[in-house]
Specification:
The protein has 142 residues and is of the alpha/beta class. It has one domain: Response regulator (Rossmann fold), CATH 3.40.50.2300. The chain contains five helices and five strands. The protein has a five-stranded parallel beta sheet, with helices on both faces. Helix 2 runs parallel beside helix 3.
Length: 142
């Protein structure tokens, strides 16, 4: 699902957080998109199934937050994070994974991700992290 670009005017506080989902598991991607779509505080502007589609979608749609899986076809989570941060430095990257190890999580953070959450966390925790990432409250330490 694709929608138009975000205005360059600062969004109002009540505007939903714009999200790009990057998840290769179609069932999980569609379920998360559906659950997030029921909320008024977030908006999924696109959902893609591999790492190579993430950067063009990010450049086109300017999401506030990219929520991505670690293990992706085409490019892994670290590569996608680096590419997104290079192309769209104002977009926060939040990893949502079932399998990333401690070393992989560290690599994600070094690449520019603001956090790495497990897929089995409660939806409210994931949404809270998305809001925090969008607001810059999860800004990574330099």
């Amino acid at each position: 699902m694709l929608t138009g670009e975000r205005s360059s005017i600062s969004p109002a506080l009540s505007d939903p957080v714009r999200i790009l989902l990057v998840e290769d598991n179609k069932i999980f991607r569609e379920a998360l998109e559906l659950l997030l779509g029921l909320r008024s505080d977030v908006q999924v502007v696109a959902a893609v199934g591999d790492g190579t589609a993430a950067v063009p979608a990010c450049v086109e749609l300017h999401p506030d937050v990219v929520v991505l899986d670690f293990r992706l076809p085409g490019m892994d989570g670290v590569q996608v994070t680096s590419a997104v941060k290079e192309a769209c430095p104002d977009t926060a990257v939040l990893c949502l994974t079932a399998t990333a190890s401690g070393a992989e999580t560290e690599a994600l953070m070094a690449a520019g991700a603001v956090a790495c959450l497990r897929k089995d966390q409660e939806l409210e925790e994931i949404v809270a992290a998305i809001h925090s990432a969008a607001a810059g409250r999860l800004a990574r330490a330099e």
